[in-house]
Design a protein that fits this description.
About 35% of the residues lie in helices and about 10% in strands. It is built from two helices and three strands; from the N terminus they run H-H-E-E-E. It binds zinc ion.
């Protein structure tokens, strides 16, 4: 979790990058404001979503968010955060 000032700095920096690259207009409307506010809220308090048990977390980075841990065809799981492929419940592989 991030403190409020750092969350605002982080989102502001991201917006500045988008503006400098020309990917985002310098004019904002209500929808842009909503995006920014939600991005700040997510940075301060990431949406939890569904989490796996600690024993099934990624051994590489401890990721537990279910939507980032994807089952592979060979019964392993690929971590979307660090890229590690592992067998859930078998730490060290
Ligand atoms: Zn990981």
């Amino acid at each position: 979790m991030m403190n409020t000032a750092n969350a605002i700095r982080k989102i502001t920096a991201a917006m500045q990058n988008e503006l400098e690259s020309g990917r985002r207009s310098t004019r904002i409307d209500a929808n842009d404001l909503i995006d920014v506010l939600l991005a700040i809220a997510d940075a301060i308090d990431p949406p939890l979503g569904d989490r796996v048990d600690a024993g099934h977390a990624c051994p590489g980075c401890n990721e537990r968010r279910q939507d980032l841990l994807v089952w592979q065809e060979d019964d392993t799981v690929r971590c979307g955060t660090c890229g590690m492929v592992y067998v859930p419940g078998c730490p060290g592989r």
